[in-house]
Design goal:
Blueprint: E1 8-11, H1 17-26, E2 28-31, H2 40-48, E3 52-54, H3 63-71, E4 76-78, H4 89-95, E5 98-100, H5 107-122, H6 125-133, E6 154-158, H7 162-175, E7 178-182, E8 195-198, H8 201-207, E9 210-213, H9 227-232, E10 238-241, H10 250-258, E11 264-267, H11 278-282, E12 286-288, H12 297-315
Helix pairs in contact: 1-12, 2-3, 5-7
The structure holds (2R)-2,3-dihydroxypropanoic acid.
(2R)-2,3-dihydroxypropanoic acid binds near residues 57, 81, 83 and 106.
Length: about 325
C-alpha cells in the first residue's frame, strides 16, 4: 500500500466515469490512460507494483503476470467481467492469489444482445442495412429480403445458467418460442413456459431452429460446437454465440456456412478476437459483432462497481462477494 494507506490497484483499461470515480474513492488506482492493450510485461510490472490488478477479458493473465505480482505486492485479481478463461486460475491458486469476477450484473444486457443477434439474423437486418447504405435498394416488393418468424420456433440453449435462462425467458415470453436446453447438471426450476432439458447437446442440435450458446469457456466446453454437432443442425437453423469464441470450432462453422449446411450464425465473440478469420468474414448469412454483450453504460458501470465491492471486501479482510 502507498499514499493514504489506500490499497493500490492496477487497472488495465479505462472504465465508465462513475466506476472509475468509485474506485478512486476507496483505492489508489493506476489507470491505463491511453486505453491501449497492454503487453504481458506491462501487466506483470503493473501487478508487481500494486496490491491488486483489475483486468478484463482482453488481457491474458498468465502465470508470468500472476507470479510477478505474487513475488511482490500483488494479492488480488479483481476481474472486470464474469468470464475468467483469460486468467490462469491454476497459477493463481498456486501463487496464493485470490480472484473475483462480476456475475449477475451483465445477465440482462447479454441476453438482450443475444436477442438482437437472433433478430438481426432471422429478419436479415444486417443484409438490409448494407443494401440500403450501398444504394442498391430498389424499393419495397413482396419477396424482398424475406426473413423468418420466431413465433412457434424452437430455441435451443446450451448452458442454462443465468444468461441462458434470461435468453430463454425473452424468447419464450416475448417472442412465443419453445425452448429446449442442455445443461450439465439437472435444472429443477419451473419456468412457466415450455422448456425441456435434453440429456445431450446433440439433442439440442437436432431439435432447435436457433441454438444459442451460454456455457462458460473451459476445457470441457472447448469447441462444444464442432463439425459433428454442426452436421446435426437443421439445414436452416442458426447458431448464436455470445459466450466465448473457444466454444465454437470457427473453421468448421465457416465451412458449414459457406456450404449452406446451416442457415446462419450470429457471433459476438471469437477465438482470436479482435482478429477475425477471413473464412468467417467471408461466410454467408452471418452477423458479426465486436463483443458487445455487456456493452451498456448501465452494465459496464455496474461491472466496475462490482470490482470495487469485491476489492473493498478483500482489503477489509472479509470474504469476497464473488469469489472465482
Ligand atoms: C464477460 O463478463 O465475460 C463479458 O464477456 C465481458 O468480459
Amino acid at each position: 500500500m502507498k499514499n493514504n494507506d489506500k490499497p493500490t490497484i492496477f487497472v488495465t483499461r479505462r472504465w465508465p466515469v462513475e466506476a472509475e470515480a468509485a474506485l478512486s474513492q476507496y483505492f489508489n488506482p493506476t489507470f491505463n490512460t491511453s486505453d491501449t492493450p497492454l503487453s504481458a510485461t506491462e501487466m506483470a510490472a503493473g501487478f508487481a507494483s500494486h496490491d491488486a490488478i483489475a483486468p478484463t477479458v482482453s488481457d491474458k493473465i498468465g502465470a508470468d503476470v500472476i507470479n510477478a505480482g505474487a513475488k511482490s505486492s500483488g494479492r488480488l485479481i479483481a476481474n472486470f467481467g464474469v468470464g475468467v478463461n483469460h486468467i490462469d486460475l491454476e497459477a493463481a491458486a498456486k501463487a496464493g492469489i485470490v480472484v473475483s469476477n462480476t456475475p449477475g450484473v451483465l445477465t440482462d444486457a447479454t441476453a438482450d444482445l443475444t436477442m438482437a443477434l437472433i433478430l438481426m439474423l432471422s429478419r436479415r437486418a444486417g443484409e438490409g442495412e448494407r443494401e440500403l447504405r450501398s444504394g442498391s435498394w430498389e424499393g419495397w416488393r413482396p419477396t424482398h429480403l424475406m426473413g423468418r418468424a420466431l413465433q412457434g420456433k424452437t430455441l435451443g440453449i446450451v448452458g442454462m445458467g443465468r444468461i441462458g435462462k434470461a435468453v430463454a425467458h425473452r424468447a419464450a415470453l416475448g417472442f412465443g418460442m419453445n425452448v429446449v436446453f442442455h445443461n450439465r447438471s439437472k435444472v429443477t426450476e419451473r419456468f412457466g413456459y415450455s422448456a425441456r432439458q435434453q440429456d445431450e447437446v446433440e439433442d439440442v442440435c437436432r431439435k432447435a431452429d436457433i441454438i444459442s450458446l451460454h456455457c462458460a469457456a473451459s476445457p470441457e466446453t472447448f469447441h462444444v460446437m464442432n463439425t459433428e454437432r454442426l452436421a446435426l443442425m437443421k439445414k436452416d437453423a442458426y447458431l448464436i454465440n455470445t459466450a466465448r469464441g473457444d466454444v465454437v470450432d470457427e473453421t468448421a462453422l465457416a465451412r458449414a456456412l459457406s456450404e449452406n449446411r446451416i442457415g446462419g450464425a450470429g457471433l459476438d465473440v471469437f477465438q482470436g478476437e479482435p482478429v477475425i478469420s477471413s473464412a468467417l468474414l467471408e461466410a454467408p448469412n452471418t452477423v458479426l459483432l465486436p463483443h458487445l454483450g455487456s456493452a451498456t453504460v448501465e452494465t459496464r458501470t455496474a461491472m466496475g462497481l462490482k470490482v470495487v465491492e469485491n476489492a473493498r471486501a478483500f482489503f477489509a479482510g472479509q470474504p469476497l462477494i464473488d469469489p472465482v
